[in-house]
Design a protein that fits this description.
This protein is an all-alpha fold and about 200 residues long. About 60% of the residues lie in helices and about 0% in strands.
Length: about 200
């Protein structure tokens, strides 16, 4: 243990501020071409939302999930992207049901499967959306909750079964998740302005 400013012990590291800046700059530089490609992809996908954009119902949780999902995707934080996209669509769809625009009440804590069923019945989402949202949920669950390596959803198991590197799988999963989030946000019920 070393002594830092004001004779307080520094518990975590002997690195100086300049050392930390060097590490941060190296980290920023390492994947710049990939970050630019992912940012360009997000920009292209955003065109689906129309010129006037989209309304994110679901309050601050949904809004920040969207902002952080985009940032996580651009910076290559793929697990975070998947988790945030799942949270975004759960908040977005349940908040839409709760917004008072529909006839029945929803429970205070509605399961996502029930949200999907209700949204599909009201044609807020398509059959394809429901299939893809369930797929995203199946990708998210093994990342949020422990799964034994013999579980088909476990990332290591998927890597072994498909003979693909886990990093490639998770990047592909995150690309799917962010694309699906944009597709849901682009639905006519959330778009602002003309839909044509």
């Amino acid at each position: 243990m070393t002594v830092g400013r004001d004779d307080q012990p520094v518990l975590l590291s002997d690195l100086s501020d300049l050392d930390f800046v060097r590490h941060l700059l190296a980290d920023l530089h390492d994947d710049q071409p990939g970050e630019v490609d992912r940012f360009r992809m997000l920009s292209d996908l955003g065109g689906q939302m129309g010129r006037s954009g989209t309304m994110i119902v679901g309050g601050h949780a949904a809004y920040h999930a969207w902002v952080e999902a985009r940032s996580s995707f651009v910076h290559g934080n793929y697990v975070a992207t998947i988790l945030l996209c799942q949270g975004l669509v759960e908040h977005l769809l349940a908040a839409y049901l709760h917004a008072g625009l529909l006839v029945d009440d929803i429970p205070d804590r509605i399961p996502f499967a029930d949200t999907l069923r209700r949204c599909r019945a009201r044609e807020v989402v398509s059959d394809e959306d429901v299939t893809d949202l369930r797929r995203m949920m199946a990708l998210r669950n093994p990342l949020s909750h422990f799964r034994h390596v013999n579980d088909a959803g476990n990332l290591d198991r998927r890597s072994i079964d498909t003979s693909q590197h886990a990093a490639d799988l998770i990047r592909h999963d995150a690309t799917f998740a962010i694309g699906l989030a944009v597709r849901i946000l682009s639905n006519p019920v959330f778009r602002l302005g003309p839909t044509a």
